[in-house]
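User: Fold this one for me? It's Glutamyl/glutaminyl-tRNA synthetase class Ib catalytic domain-containing protein.
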Amino acid sequence: MRSNGQPVYNFCVTVDDATMRISHVIRAEEHLPNTLRQALIYKALGFAMPLFAHVSLILAPDKSKLSKRHGATSVGQYKEMGYLPQAMVNYLALLGWGDGTENEFFTIDDLVEKFTINRVNKSGAVFDATKLKWMNGQHLRSLPSDLLIKDFEDRWRSTGILLESESGFAKEAAELLKEGIDLITDADAALCKLLSYPLHDTLSSDEAKSVVEDKLSEVASGLIAAYDSGELGQALAEGHDGWKKWVKSFGKTHKRKVSVIEGDCGLILLPTEGLFLGCFNGLAKPLEHLN
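Assistant: Here's what I get for Glutamyl/glutaminyl-tRNA synthetase class Ib catalytic domain-containing protein.
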């Protein structure tokens, strides 16, 4: 006890843990000096002793102790930056622990099932912001569509990008943008770029002239009809293979060249890539043009 009658830390934490029936205390190695003192208090008060484990600190890239000067430090800050809770838990779990395989993607349930204290590393783990962002992208793209759309809607409404009546648009935009971003906040700029896409200027350019004059309206009408009938939506729902098959069939019907592009889209029709992406050279990458 202090001279003013206030209890000291080691006494408080021991009584607190004992009355809550804490069975395992896992904490940073900085607490090693406190462990002996607390063990003596447990013994003196007749409390059952928990099992103690001490893990290495999380280090900054320069191998110093992680602190405020290295960036965001609170959960709230990371949430505002666009990080998902499950991605943060996944990444933090891998700082000094692994399941013995090369797998790095874990759900909360996976971690509960696989975690064992004996696989925790003794050396300090370096916090890598780039790796955390990549991890967040993996979790973002694995979200069920309804949860992903809600996250986008909540974000866009809070920033004023989206109105209450535009939830249907959010669904379409979320599916389009998710493959090229790692953070929820990354979608803001991409969406604004998409909404302000200068279609008229694109079609009026010298690059587009030959494409526009080559019966572009017939192709556009065909795409609209396929969308209205549900044919296009069905092809997209079948994934990459279904989309690939539909694009080839549509291109053959309208006597149009099929352009192969990198990424999940895989194939797109010339000249529709000019309409969608503002590029007529057959080498477009969708999100590069949106971003």
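One thing worth pointing out: Residues 127 and 206 are 49 Å apart (CA to CA).
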